[in-house]
Amino acid sequence: MAAIAKILLLGSGELGREFTISAKRLGCHVVACDSYAGAPAMQMADEAEVFAMLDGDALRAAITRHAPDFIVPEVEAIRTEVLAEVEAEGHVVVPSARATQMTMNRDRIREVAAVELGLHTSRYRYAESLAEAEAGAAHTGFPCVIKPVMSSSGKGQSTVRDAGELARAWDYAVANMRGDRRRVIVEQFVDFDYEITLLTVRTRDGIRFCPPIGHRQERGDYQESWQPAAMAAPVLAAAQDMARKVVDNLGGFGLFGVEFFVKGEEVIFSELSPRPHDTGMVTLISQDLSEFDLHARAILGLPVPQPRLLGASASAVILADRDATAFGYAGLAEALAVAGGDIDVRLFGKPVTRPWRRMGVALARAGDTDAARRLAAEAASRVRINYDN
Ligand SMILES: Nc1ncnc2c1ncn2[C@@H]1O[C@H](COP(=O)(O)OP(=O)(O)OP(=O)(O)O)[C@@H](O)[C@H]1O
Ligand SMILES: NCC(=O)N[C@@H]1O[C@H](COP(=O)([O-])[O-])[C@@H](O)[C@H]1O
Ligand SMILES: [Mg+2]
């Protein structure tokens, strides 16, 4: 194999797809894995493997069969105990088996951040029953946010305004949690002014920060993001200091998406991804090196320069609204014709639609972030999904 490195990619969604493109440009061989065939990254990769990554035996078999130089998780739902075992046997897990274990479970990363590192977080309690959730809410006060400790993209998450809504939130969390732990975190609702993702790259030559990314979420899932987010210098410095502490604790090399809420001068750590972040897709148009390029370079031990911002930019998601296997796209030309800035679109090639499933993203670069957000939203709205059934 005349590749510079072999990568086993665990998870093959849109983030893995762009990462695969970045890694392949640098001469890597990529084996893309996920639980279904034809996943976005598989369409770009050298090889594909379909299996349940929470199945420890299947995961270990894939690692043994491919003997990769780097194991690169792309989703959280992975049998991370196996990653810890193979790391101990000499495999390289990106960024580290510890990082994947801590971030797969909200309670574990919360303990690292709030207890071990003493970072400022929202008030919280864990609960394994409705009665414990009620006690948790008594501790946080209302409103509070209930989330399964194992979930992502807002799945199973709800905001509870009063005690009467708790039972429904508990049931919803239990019904939508993944993995095998019936546990939720009850978090104080933070009435933040804005929230950011701070893309933080841990390289052999030290830490690099991308300019902060602002974003807006609905149903716990991201709708639009923009870069740079306007922040006072001391507030950004405080976030950078916290991000540095967390990624140094987790260890390894690669890019992390560290999430914060900001209220006035107060910076509240929320959570992080030890991998490229969905809100960071804006870097596909905003930076000379995207978050995917930075992740690839950091993993491979290549030089990682300070990323350069090319201009104020934004991303806006393109969502499906129903279940379908037969569908097509229209309006791409109209989207790319949006005037007033530089426009681009990514369609992920997902084989089926679901209500709210992210199928693509529109990107825009303009004079300022407000203009970029307007253009990205306009471009996203012009891409239509035509359902045949
Ligand atoms: N305690 C809170 N107070 C106010 N808003 C919150 C709180 N927790 C979560 N949110 C809102 O919900 C969004 C999603 O929450 P969080 O990042 O914890 O979920 P997630 O499922 O891990 O999402 P992702 O995987 O996309 O990062 C946050 O970005 C924020 O907008
Ligand atoms: N917030 C995490 C996130 O955005 N993850 C991205 O979504 C994919 C799953 O999408 P799907 O649910 O449409 O298959 C994941 O594979 C990853 O690329
Ligand atoms: Mg999040």
Automatic annotation (TrEMBL):
InterPro entries: ATP-grasp, ATP-grasp_carboxylate-amine, PurT, PurT/PurK_preATP-grasp, PurT_C. Keywords: ATP-binding, Ligase, Magnesium, Metal-binding, Nucleotide-binding, Purine biosynthesis, Transferase. It catalyses: N(1)-(5-phospho-beta-D-ribosyl)glycinamide + formate + ATP = N(2)-formyl-N(1)-(5-phospho-beta-D-ribosyl)glycinamide + ADP + phosphate + H(+). One of its GO terms (molecular function) is transferase activity. Signal peptide: none annotated. Mg(2+) binds at residues 259, 271. Residues 111-300 form the ATP-grasp domain. Its EC number is 6.3.1.21. N(1)-(5-phospho-beta-D-ribosyl)glycinamide binds at residues 14-15, 74, 278, 350, 357-358. It is an enzyme of class 6 (ligase). It holds the Pfam family PurT_C. The keyword Magnesium applies. Pathway: Purine metabolism; IMP biosynthesis via de novo pathway; N(2)-formyl-N(1)-(5-phospho-D-ribosyl)glycinamide from N(1)-(5-phospho-D-ribosyl)glycinamide (formate route): step 1/1. ATP binds at residues 106, 147, 152-157, 187-190, 195. It comes from the Bacteria. Involved in the de novo purine biosynthesis. Catalyzes the transfer of formate to 5-phospho-ribosyl-glycinamide (GAR), producing 5-phospho-ribosyl-N-formylglycinamide (FGAR). Formate is provided by PurU via hydrolysis of 10-formyl-tetrahydrofolate. Homodimer. Belongs to the PurK/PurT family. HAMAP family: PurT. This is Formate-dependent phosphoribosylglycinamide formyltransferase. The lineage of its organism: Bacteria, Pseudomonadati, Pseudomonadota, Alphaproteobacteria, Sphingomonadales.
